[in-house]
Specification:
- It is a single chain.
- By secondary structure, the protein is of the alpha+beta class.
- It has 4 domains: 4-68, no CATH class; 74-147, K homology (KH) domain (GMP Synthetase, Chain A, domain 3); 153-208, no CATH class; 216-268, SH3 type barrels (Roll), CATH 2.30.30.
- It has 9 helices and 13 strands.
- The chain has helices at residues 70-96, 128-138, 149-156, 167-170, 180-185, 192-195, 205-208, 210-217, 263-266; strands at residues 4-8, 14-18, 30-35, 38-46, 64-67, 102-108, 114-120, 141-146, 226-229, 232-240, 245-250, 255-259, 267-268.
- The strands form 3 sheets. A 5-stranded antiparallel β-sheet has the order 2-1-4-3-5. Strands 12-11-10-9-13 form a 5-stranded antiparallel β-sheet. Strands 6-7-8 form a 3-stranded mixed β-sheet, with helices on both faces.
- Strand 3 and strand 4 form a beta hairpin.
- The longest helix is centred in the first third of the chain and has 27 residues, at 70-96.
- The radius of gyration is 28 Å and the shape is elongated.
- It starts with a strand and ends in a 22-residue tail after the last strand.
Length: 290
């Protein structure tokens, strides 16, 4: 039986819990776990502790208590309705207090002992009066937690322009830095409207596709460099790693599209008096450059 299990909550929030009673939890099951001064409900996400994950000693980690029963599930569904109402109340009070913040989400602890509001803001916000106001309405512990816009997208979920579920909500565990250099290496136009995801920041896929693009592009002759074929010397105008082709413009003005798969038969190195260096070309599988 698992000694530790990972539990996922609303908004892709995850945490590891000890399983001292060795319950035979299964993936996807709803379970009850210890929470701060109470209990919470989540779904089993992992039942084996990966080697890269470390957890605090047993006296410092909360415990999985039991499987969720029908009463727990009904209570949880009721909390979802309450969360939507509380979200609207909080947003109205933000306007009343004239705070420069955007309330993105609300999460009830199963037993109602805590309500957490997640918000984004460009600057530090003094929300102490807002917390007092909300506590006076709900008579429970109120927590306001500032998150980034990428975390907001992860919590709210959605679909990207590719038509697939957002990577941040479906599989990315931690956010890494993303730079425009990744777009330049993929020969993408530096158009913020096309490079930004739904969060308004650079798309995460720019980074995890980066290594492949660098490898694929390295199989082609250098862009904007001279090259010699059976038709003479020309310049590399364009490479297309999706079609495995590159475009050459000769000194005569003629433009030719050459397939990479047969490039060894058509492309030659310039002679010793050429002064140009040309690398060897190898076959590469289908890919795409946007």
């Amino acid at each position: 039986m698992p000694d530790f299990i990972e539990v996922k909550f609303k908004g892709e929030r995850k945490n590891w819990y000890a399983n001292p009673q060795q319950f035979p939890f299964r993936l996807g099951e709803l379970i009850i776990v210890e929470a701060e001064k109470g209990e919470d409900l989540g779904r089993v996400n992992q039942v084996e502790l990966p080697a890269r994950v470390t957890v605090p000693p047993n006296d410092g980690i909360k415990k999985a208590l039991r499987k969720a029963n029908e009463h727990d599930v009904i209570h949880h569904q009721g909390n979802k309705v309450s969360e939507q109402k509380a979200l609207e109340v909080c947003r109205q009070k933000v306007v009343t207090h004239n705070l420069q913040m955007k309330v993105a989400d609300c999460e009830y602890q199963l037993d109602g002992n805590k309500i957490t509001f997640y918000f984004t803001a460009e600057k530090r916000v003094d929300f102490r009066e807002l917390v007092k106001d909300l506590a006076g309405v709900y008579h429970t512990r109120i927590e306001l937690r500032q998150i980034g816009v990428r975390d907001e997208a992860k919590r709210l979920d959605g679909y990207g322009v590719c038509g697939r579920r957002l990577c941040c909500s479906s599989w990315i565990q931690e956010f890494g830095p993303i730079t425009t250099q990744a777009a330049k290496e993929q020969n993408l136009q530096l158009n913020p409207n096309k490079l930004a995801g739904v969060c308004g920041r650079l798309k995460c896929c720019l980074m995890y596709e980066r290594d492949f693009y660098n490898w694929a592009i390295a199989q082609f002759p250098d862009l904007a460099k001279p090259i010699k074929t059976e038709k003479g010397e020309g310049l590399i105008l364009k490479i297309d790693i999706f079609k495995d082709t590159f475009t050459v413009k000769y000194q005569s003005g003629e433009v030719e599209v050459l397939p990479l798969a047969v490039s060894k038969e058509k492309v030659y190195k310039c002679g010793n008096d050429c002064g140009h260096e040309h690398g060897n070309l190898e076959e590469v599988g289908n890919s795409e450059i946007h």
